[in-house]
Q: What sequence folds into this?
């Protein structure tokens, strides 16, 4: 079999791994490139699906960097199944709808600039019809249910603990009288984190395609980070200031709401207004609620007792743009969660524009910030930033809360890999910046005596 790397090779976005045998052609994830302009432009490059027809797609989870290019498949005539857990399919539908709206806005801006430079307009990457064509292809599967994907290829999904419904994928591939097992880690969540269950490891594989987002560092503990977060929030409340949290609509939002509910219940924070300023996050929270059987034991008990709902009576959804704009005039201390998580679009932009110049404002960065993103510039200590063409001074305090990450850190990645290591799999490290990939690969070699590979975009390996 051959595996082609159409994304997440030297970067943390664009996940797309194409498995080709003499009998079958299967894609694991089909994600969007995000971040810098040159990264986004990769979405316009045609990734060749080698060896002809694509038989099936298997998804690890519903984040845009893992599902964002799916409409390009239907735009080019794909009509095969798309396998994933039910929550992943629900979240993917939600995120693609949002992605389409953002694409229309971005395309309008780009084409206005191109018109001024007398350049031809860009065509949309995909349209609403291409997104609609995905729905009949969605094929839900359960964790630990083995199913046939394509001729000679069977799959099994296990809980990856990253977001609701996220999975690691095991492919069993029969070819030329031999069977090989290839594991795709997908994005792994941290062990012991609240709300979701821990990622489930595998015991053996012939090859593993391993994520390395935080392969070069460890997070602060969730406990210490939660204490720090409470202290920052308490100070902001005392200063009658706003707390801005750029959030990914799926995962981080629901974790933060759960932690705030716990703080209110235990009275470690006074109850104060929380504004969920993201229609997508509001709907994603409903998806979490419909799938609470996937929560860990403590979270499930909090749901079933009614404590979760009772503790969040001060949380208010802001669905409309007018409700979002009205938050600019709120004088009382409050916490605003708004997308996007890397501050590269969405409603967080106008909140940052209005509040970054105010020294009392606290900005909590709770997720990974890719190179070139506004969020990364804030984390790196920029004194001024450009927001919608306006230079904005940064006087607010910026707090990086790595312990809230939905990704496993170096220790967590190594722990997950350690159960596979005795089977001595061929180890291919992806979904990480090169520094993280190298550091994690060196650590695997040091601990387990295994050589690792770090493919580049467009590379192919043969197993």
A:
């Amino acid at each position: 079999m051959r595996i082609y790397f159409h994304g997440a090779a030297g970067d943390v976005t664009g996940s797309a791994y194409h498995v080709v045998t003499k009998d079958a052609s299967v894609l694991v994830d089909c994600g969007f490139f995000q971040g810098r302009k040159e990264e986004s432009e990769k979405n316009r490059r045609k990734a060749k699906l080698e060896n002809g027809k694509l038989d099936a797609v298997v998804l690890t989870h519903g984040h845009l960097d893992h599902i964002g290019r799916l409409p390009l498949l239907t735009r080019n005539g794909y009509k095969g199944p798309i396998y994933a857990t039910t929550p992943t399919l629900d979240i993917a539908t939600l995120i693609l709808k949002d992605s389409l709206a953002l694409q229309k806005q971005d395309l309008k801006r780009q084409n206005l600039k191109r018109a001024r430079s007398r350049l031809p307009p860009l065509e949309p990457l995909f349209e609403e019809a291409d997104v609609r064509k995905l729905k009949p292809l969605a094929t839900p599967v359960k964790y630990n249910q083995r199913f046939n994907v394509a001729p000679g290829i069977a799959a099994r999904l296990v809980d990856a603990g990253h977001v609701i419904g996220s999975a690691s994928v095991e492919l069993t591939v029969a070819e030329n009288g031999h069977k090989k097992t290839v594991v795709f880690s997908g994005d792994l969540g941290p062990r012991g984190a609240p709300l979701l269950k821990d990622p489930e490891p595998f015991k053996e594989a012939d090859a593993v395609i391993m994520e390395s987002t935080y392969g070069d560092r460890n997070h602060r503990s969730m406990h210490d980070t939660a204490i720090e977060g409470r202290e920052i929030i308490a100070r902001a409340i005392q200063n009658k200031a706003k707390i801005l949290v750029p959030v990914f609509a799926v995962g981080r939002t629901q974790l933060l709401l759960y932690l705030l509910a716990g703080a209110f219940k235990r009275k470690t924070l006074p109850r104060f207004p929380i504004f969920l300023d993201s229609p997508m996050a509001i709907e994603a929270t409903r998806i979490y609620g419909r799938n609470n059987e996937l929560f860990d034991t403590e979270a499930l008990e909090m749901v079933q007792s009614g404590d979760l709902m009772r503790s969040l009576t001060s949380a208010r959804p802001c669905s409309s743009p007018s409700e979002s704009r009205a938050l600019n005039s709120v004088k009382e201390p409050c916490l605003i969660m708004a997308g996007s998580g890397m501050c590269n679009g969405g409603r967080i932009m106008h909140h940052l524009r209005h509040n970054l110049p105010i020294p009392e404002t606290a900005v909590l960065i709770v997720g990974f910030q890719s190179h070139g993103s506004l969020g990364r510039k804030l984390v790196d200590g920029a004194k001024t930033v450009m927001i919608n063409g306006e230079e904005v001074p940064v006087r607010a305090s910026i707090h990086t809360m790595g312990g809230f990450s939905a990704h496993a850190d170096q220790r967590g990645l190594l722990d997950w890999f350690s159960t596979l290591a005795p089977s001595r799999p061929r180890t291919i490290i992806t979904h990480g910046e090169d520094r993280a990939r190298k550091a994690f690969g060196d650590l695997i070699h040091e601990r387990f005596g295994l050589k690792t590979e770090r493919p580049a975009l467009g590379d192919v390996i043969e197993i």
In short: The chain is about 35% helix and 20% strand. The chain has a mean pLDDT of 93. The radius of gyration is 22 Å. The longest strand covers residues 167-175.
